[in-house]
Every structure is written in structure tokens, then in C-alpha cells.
Known about the structure:
Blueprint: H1 6-41, H2 45-73, H3 75-94, H4 99-113, H5 117-127, H6 131-162, H7 167-170, H8 172-186, H9 200-223, H10 228-250, H11 264-294, H12 299-305, H13 307-327, H14 330-350, H15 356-383, H16 390-416, H17 426-453, H18 457-483
Helix pairs in contact: 1-2, 1-5, 1-6, 1-8, 2-3, 2-4, 2-9, 2-16, 3-4, 3-5, 3-8, 5-16, 6-12, 6-13, 6-15, 9-10, 9-16, 11-15, 11-16, 11-17, 13-15, 14-15, 14-17, 15-16, 16-17
Amino acid sequence: MPDLSRRRRLLVLAICCLSLLIVSLDNTVLNVALPSMQRELGASVSGMQWTIDAYTLVLASLLMLSGSTADRLGRRRIFMIGLVVFAAGSLLCSLAPDLTWLVVFRMVQAVGGSMLNPVAMSIITNTFTDPRERARAIGVWGGVVGISMAAGPVVGGLLVQSVGWRSIFWINVPIGALALFLTWRWVPESRAPRPRRVDPVGQLLVIALLGSLTYAIIEAPEAGWDSPEILAFVLVAAGSLIALVGYERRRPEPLIDLRFFHSAPFSGATVTAVCAFAALGGFLFVNTLYLQNIRGLSALNAGLYMLPMAGMTLVFAPLSGRLVGGRGPRLPLLLAGCAMAASGVLFAAFDAESTTALLFTGYILFGIGFGLVNAPITNTAVSGMPRAQAGVAAAVASTSRQVGQSLGVAVIGAVLAGGAHTGATRTAFLAAARPGWWIIAGCGAAVLLLGALTTGRWADATARRTAALFEGEAARDHRQARTGS
């Protein structure tokens, strides 16, 4: 990639952030619209779950393939294809005649979405080569999540109440078209210097692993963990994981290079992403049910109630990027873990729902924690890796986020099964939610522990050894290419 002026680099960052905005908005807006969609399409609760989970499953399954494909064929090219497919999928979703077609078109959306965020992050990594500038750029990137969290429920509530649920998909089309034009005009092409070969077996094993695991988690609360169907899918997931690890270790150019995990910071960032986004998924799920089903708020008012959390995410995400750029990832990870754990404990042990002041305090604490955690996750995942592998490294981090959010919703949903129904009393709901809040607090504690363990001198040494391993391999390949051997 050619050297770009500061103004051009900032423009590239803004264009990449547009892709994150439409994907993040799509998730938050959709949650607000679920009741209206359920009524019009005559769908069950599980049917509504699949409108979310089909998207998440396809997205998580294809992120690593999209990242490696972009490194090989060109990041701008794959990014533009993703924008077209995502916008087309959104338009099709708005025209869906029934639930089945809506789920199918959500999967089309996910195919496009898999080409956006990890590829955009790879573009950012290769545009901002200075570590401090890159950390700040990633902080801005994280701030877009806060914008989408703040705007999504409000925009979704207004659209659903004034136009109807189909309009929530329309907004992706003009934003996608604008991002497509700006990408074509201003984003330079870049690719890995040594293209990687396709790994179809590894990709199929990833799909089998994530698909079977997701299905088992979603269906287990109703079918029972001891049912033959669920046990069969659990066995498929376990078998796929074992086969994936064994196969990828022997392959010269694997889909997932397991040597990445020799770096303690990279491994820590991967697990931290799962824990942090599991906490987010559970947090949003519990509060959506509480505010709308127990407090009786409209979708719009429920979204307004969540603004303190979204506002804190918006404020602390760029601050976290500056902290990572100036002092490294340790401090923001420790602060994030403390804030998220404190929020969970406030709800679990002190009944934060009892007063609006305590409720908002819990929201603010969680927003602070979630705002702080994103930048160190992404920065740690990509900064220790060679730039040629940036797409794959970013895709692993993005996949961890999707898997974590799916797990959070599934586990908290199972915990709430006895008291989360529309007709549940406030007392019954709070009793059912308490174990879920302890799980969220545990996720925050895990972020704190991982931040302490994977950011010290020992962890930095493992990252340097891993980087040296890849650099030595690249130098050897370069010598072989020059000599023609």
C-alpha cells in the first residue's frame, strides 16, 4: 500500500467505519423490531431467534475465510463485494414474504457482512502503520459501536412505529451505496505479499464446528441436553474441533494458523473477546426483556433507557484507543474488567432494578467497561502479527466476538427460561435473572484476570517470539523466491 497523507488516512478510516456502522446498526435496530416482525409474520419466539442466530452463525463461519481471501485477492475488492452483497441482502430482507425467506435473506446479509468488518480492520491496520496512530484509529472504530448502540434503538423505534419493521432494512441500502462509492474513489488496493492457498477442508470444519455448537446451544433449553439430537450435535462439534486442530497443524498454509496462539497477548485477546461479548449479549438480552416485558416500556422508550450505557461506550472507546497507544493494553483491560464485573454484581447482589438511579448506575458501569475493552482486543489481535496476516488475525478476533455474543444470549436465555415470559411477575423475573447477572459478573472478572495475565513481560516475550517466527519464515520465502529455488 502506498504512503498516504494524514487526511487521506483519516478518510480511509471514516469509510471503513461506515461499514461497521451499518452492520452494528442492523443488529441493534433488529432487536427493537422483533415484536412487530413476530406479529406480522406469525412467528414463534424460536423463529425470531433464528432471524438473529442464522445471521450470526453464517457471519462467524465465514469471517476467517473472508479475511484470508481479502489478504490474497485484494482487500478493497473484497470489501466492495461485501458492501454490495450486504446492501442487496438488506433489500431482500425488506421484501421477505414470510419467516423462512427472512431467515434466508438474513444469511445473504451475513455473507456480505463477513467481508466488511474484518477486511475493514485489515485495511486500517495496513493504512495506520505507526502503533500509536493505529491504536487511536482502532479507538475511533470502537466508538462507532457506541454510536450504533445509541442510535440503533432510537432509530429503530421511530422507524417501526412510523413506517413499519421492513423500513429498518432500507437504511442499509443508501449507506452501503455511499460507502461503495467512497471506497472505489479513495481506498487504495492492498494485499498480502505472498498469497495464501484456499483451505476448503478447514473452512468446512469451521462451519461444522460453529453450526453444530450453535444449534445445540439454541435448541437445548427446549429439547434438553440429554436428548439424542442435542448429544449428536455436541459430538459433531467436538469431533469437528479435534479434526480442525489436527488438520490445521499439518497444513502448510492453514485457514487458521495455530501458531498465532503461541502469542499470549493474541490468545488472551481471543478469549477476552468471547467473555466481553458474551457479557454484552447477555446484558442486552436481559435488559430488553426487563424494560419491555416487566416495566412495560415501548421499544422507543426502552431504547432511550439504554442511552447511558451507549453514551459511555461512545465516550470511552476512543479514550481506550489513546490509552492503548500511549500505555499499552493492560490498563484499559483491567479497568474494563472491573467496570463490567461491578455492573454485574450491582444487579445480582444489590437489585439495581429496584430504583432508576441504581439501574442507570449499572448501565453506566457496563458502558464504561465495554467501551474500554474493544480497542485492546482488536489492537492486541492484529499488532503482534505480521501485516501480511492482518486480515486473518482481525477475522479471528471478529469471530470470537460473534461466538461470544451467541453464547451469551444462549446461556442467559436458558437461565431466564423460567421467568422471562411476557406474563412473568417482576419478582419472578428478578429471581430468574439473578444467576444470569452473576454470569455477566464472572465474564467481567475473566476480562480482568486475562488482562493481568496476558499483558505483562512474559506475555510480551511470547508475542515477540511469535512475530520472529513469522518474520523468519517470510525472510526464508523471500530468499527462495529470489534464487528461484
